[in-house]
Write the C-alpha cells for this entry.
Amino acid sequence: MKKKTFYITTPIYYPSDKLHIGHSYCTVAADVMARYKRMQGFDVMFLTGTDEHGQKIEDKAKAAGVTPQQYVDNIVAGIKDLWKLMNISNDRFIRTTDDYHQQSVQKIFKELYDRGDIYKGSYKGKYCTPCESFWTESQLIDGKCPDCGREVAETEEEAYFFRLSKYADRLMHYYYEENPHFIEPQSRLNEMVNNFIRPGLEDLCVSRTTFTWGVPVTFDPGHIVYVWVDALSNYITALGYGNSRYHDFEKYWPADVHFVGKEITRFHTIVWPAMLMALDLPLPKRVFGHGWLLLEGGKMSKSKGNVVDPVVLCGRYGVDSLRYFLLREFPFGSDGVFSNEALINRINSDLANDLGNLVSRTLSMAKKYFGQAIPQDRDFISPDDQLIHMAEELRGRYEEAMERYAFQDALVEVFKVVARANKYIDETAPWALGKDPAQAGRLAAVLYNLLEIIRISAILLTPFIPDSVEKIMRQLGVDESAAKYESALYFANTEYCVNKTENLFPRIDMKKELELLEQKQAEQEAAGAQPAAKQAKPKAEQPKDAAPEGIITIDDFKKVKLIVAKVTACEPVPKSDKLLRLSLDDGTGTGRQVVSGIHQWYQPEDLVGKKVVVVANLRPAKLRGVMSEGMILAADSVKPDGAEDVRVVFMDDSIPCGSSIH
C-alpha cells in the first residue's frame, strides 16, 4: 500500500551572521514534527535551507573583503554543522545560490510576466536594507522601518511589480471558505486580514537594479529577481518544479505545513499564496506562524548568564535537553522569554527529577531483585488498573496535541504519566516487597508496570529527545517491535532484558552554572565576540532597560490611565458613516467627549447609560472636526465569513465613574 506523504518546511534562513537559539527553535519544532510523522508511517519530506541573495549580503561581503559567494559559503557551512549537532533530520537542504533553484526562479518569473501578473514600472519610496523591505511614508514609525526600527533610505529605481492587489478577494475566500485552518494560530489570521488585506493590498516590487547579488531576470539583464520571489519559490523548486534536479513535486506538493516566524507570516500567507494562484498551482495546506524567543530585557543579561549560542548550550547540557526545553517551556504559537535559568530549571525538574529518576529507580530495582528479566509469574491487583489505563490512553491525548502543533501540550501529557509512575513507586514500595519472598509475584507486577510506562513514554518522546530514548531502550533491552509507535497503545507483555543503567540527565547546580556562564560570556566579550541577535530578523538596538520587542514593562503599563466612565449621550458625527460622538461622565464633574469609529456595530441608543473603559490620558485629537479626548476599549475579531466584528468592553454598573483600572 502506498504511504501517505507529509511535507514540512522551515523558513530558509538568511546567512548574514551565525545562527542563534531563535533559529534553532523553529528548526527543532519542524524536526520533531517530521520525526513524529515518520514514526506514524508517513513518507516525509522535511526541507530547510538558506536564503542567500540580496543587498545586505553584498554589502557584508564587500566589507569583509570577500565575494558574496565566499561569504555565504562560510556561514552556510556553520549552519549545516549546527543542524547536524542538533540532530536535525532534514531530507533536503536548499540554497538559493544552487544552480537548479536559480534556473527555476527565472522560469517562474518569466511565466508570471507572460501571464500578465508581473509588469514593469518604477518604484519611489523608503527601503530598509536589513529587512529587504520597501515601505511607504505612512508605514514608517518615527521615520524608521516598522519591522526593525532602523533608518530607511530614499530609493527610486525602475522595477518589476507583481499584481498582488489582484488576489485580495481570492485570498479572503481561501482563508474563510476553502481552508479555514490555513493560517494558524488564529491570531495570525486576524493580523493578516486586519493589518494588510482590509487596508488594501498594494502591488509588490519583485526586481531590483541597485545591486547585482541575485538571480538575473533573463529577459531584462539589468534587473535581478527580488528576495520574495526568489526565496519563497524554494518550497517548490526543492521538489523539482522548473528544474531537472528533483522529480517529486507531484508526490509532495502541496506542503502540509510551513513553519515560519511570525515576522514573515504575511509573506507566506499573502504573497506566497497569491504567487501560487497566479501560477495555477495548489496552495499549502497550512502556515503556522510561531512566536519569538526573546531574551530577558531584550539584551544579553550578564546577571542571568544568558548565553544563546546553541553550540555552547548543547555542549554544556546535551542536545536532547536543549531540544526538550525549546518545545516544553513555551506554547509554540506564542512569544517566550528565554533564559539560561529557565533552561536549567526545566532540565532539573522534568528530565532529571521526573524522567531520569523514574528510569534510574525502576531499572536499578529490576536488576537488583530479578537480574535481567522480569518473571512471568506476576500478581496484578486493582490499584494497577488506574496506571495502566492512564498509559494506554496516553497516545490518543498525545496525538491530539501533536496534530495541533501543540508540542508543549503533548509533552505535558507524557510527563503526567511519568509523574504518576513515580508516585506509583512510592505507593507500592518495591523495596519493601523485595524483603518478602512471598511478595515476589507482586514485586514482579509492580516493576513490569513501571517498565511498560517507561517504554510507552519513551516511544512518544522519541521525536523530542531521540538520542536519550535510544539509550533508554538499550537499557530496557527490548526488541525492535517493542519500540515501534504501534506498541505505544497498550501494555504489550514485553520481554525485558535489563542492562546497566546510566544517569541520562544529571542534576545541575544552578548557582555554580550561572556563575560559569557569566564567566564564559565575559570571556567571549573580552575576545571581541559579538552576542547573537535576539531573534531571526535583526531588530534595532534597544536602550539598556528596554523590554523585548512586543513586550512592555510595568512602567510602560503605568503610563496608560484607564478609567470607568458612563455614556450620558451619543450621536453620529456629521458626514461620517463610522464615527459616533460619546459624552461621558468620567467622575470629574466636568465630563469629557470621545469620538469612536464603532457606528457600524452600534447605534447611539445601544450605548447610552452603559459604562465603558476609557484611555483617559491620550492626547486629544480632532476627528472629522470633532474633538476627541480619549479612546474607549473594544475587542476586534473576524467572523467566519471574513467580516470584521467589534465589541465594546462594558463594565459592571456598580463600579463608580472615574474608578481607575489597574
Observations:
- The longest strand covers residues 118-128.
- The chain is about 40% helix and 20% strand.
